[in-house]
Amino acid sequence: MSQYSQPDFWSLKARKEGYPARSVYKLKEIDEKFGVFKRFCGKALDLGAAPGSWSLYTLRRVGAAGSLAAVDLSPLSRQYDKGLFDKENFRFLQGDMTSMEIRDAALALGPFNAVLCDAAPATTGNSAIDAIRSLALSETAFEYAESALAQGGVFVVKVFQGGDSASLLKRIRGLFSQGRSFKPQSCRKGSFETYYIGLGKKS
Ligand SMILES: C[S@@+](CC[C@H](N)C(=O)[O-])C[C@H]1O[C@@H](n2cnc3c(N)ncnc32)[C@H](O)[C@@H]1O
Q1: How far apart are CA 96 and CA 48, in angstroms?
Q2: CB distance 68 to ligand 1 below 6 Å
């Protein structure tokens, strides 16, 4: 049995509020602190989107005037979307975000005003290996932001602390007017994850 098999406060709250996963509160905290969706009402890209809480939060925040493309290896949950995932302003690409095929298909839907990435590798229990794999996904997300984010755009990416994530933060600070590190309160206690936020992509 997984150590997380018992729903905790955040998981129960998520279901009650119409989201499949507790991760929605991490994006909500980031949005409230950094004004992610105050800065635009345009196009967003969500990498590592399943089961779909960040995508639902984004679609609800940007409304019908905005649009979202989402990518994941796994399908999205359809339990809470109330038809939002069937609307014309949403596209889901099922596949590997590191593959050329998915990259080309996603980039063709841009440019985006926000690139969000909560992707996480399947954990091995070895925190050093997990950190290396997580950083590879975070760096791939940064490459999407480099290629497909419009000027002024926002980037949010999950990183596991422990690897060489400081070099990624440095690259974010080079590409954006501001690069910040933030650990939401709703992260699980003892988790190694944190989030890097790039605000205002430079031209
Ligand atoms: C923590 S979950 C994301 C939760 C999501 N933000 C939400 O709110 O529902 C991490 C996701 O990353 C996805 N993932 C991991 N590696 C990936 C890859 N190479 N390409 C696409 N998705 C990947 C996993 O399939 C998993 O669904």
Answers
A1: 9
A2: no
Residue 4 lies in a domain: no
The finding on whether 187 has its CB within 6 A of some atom of ligand 1 is no
Tell me, in angstroms, the distance from the centre of ligand 1 to residue 81's CA.
18
Cα 146 to Cα 131: distance, rounded to the nearest angstrom: 22
Domain total of the chain? 1
Separation of CA 121 and ligand 1 centre (Å):
7
Considering 26, 28, 43, 158, which one is annotated as catalytic?
158
CATH code, domain carrying 81: 3.40.50.150
pLDDT above 60 for 158 = yes
Question: Please, which pLDDT band fits residue 63 given cuts at 50, 70 and 90?
Answer: very high
Residue 96 Cβ inside 6 Å of ligand 1? The answer reads yes
Mean pLDDT of 15-39: 94
d(CA 172, CA 95) in angstroms, rounded, equals 25
pTM over 0.85: yes
Q: How many residues are given for the chain?
A: 203
Residue 2 falls within a domain, yes or no? no
